[in-house]
Design goal:
about 210 residues; alpha/beta; Arginase, Chain A; 7 helices; 6 strands; Ureohydrolase; hydrolase; arginase activity
Amino acid sequence: MLVVAVGGDCGVELEPVSAARRRYGDRLVVVWFDAHGDLNTPESSPSGAYHGMVLRALTGEGPEGLAAEEPLDPRRIVLAGVRDLDPPEAAFVTHAGIRWVTMAETGTAEALLAAIEAVGGPDAAVYVHIDLDVLDPEVFRSVGCPTPGGMHPERLLSLVTAIGGRFEVAGLGLMEYEAGDLEDEADGDREVLAELVGGVVAAVAGHPGRTAPR
């Protein structure tokens, strides 16, 4: 059964990813499509907002009661499309050995698939997290933290499709939609969202529980 979590802010991901960790153990790789790293701690966070800490909390470091009981090894995280890291987050990425597939490397799927296999092997089970602010605000702006230089929906869909075609899919999270006003609706954000949600769910729905092809 494929678990699809729809938020809400990224803090919603604590339990779905933790559940995937309990189910798949060390096979789990988390691919984090996001403009931000979400790797702050309560001490390093400029805002104090939990949605900017949740990935760090999944590694076991977070607010009391809001950190994973079975921590995810940071080396089994792949950041994709992240382009706005606070200095403490950047230091943690380097120190912890987190893989980071930059925007420049997401033009095709090869770098992303190679990063997943490098950290999880060919039998990796992948939890796909999508914060909608990974998209470029010129094409989708109904998010709380729009960040220039993001992906177009077609590129994101092609990357998720490539993941689903290569690896077992452990779950999917779609987060951070903030419904806009009528002007946003006229600009087509809801249409973009509907097509993207349908596309990514279809891309992974046929693959949960299967072994990745060699």
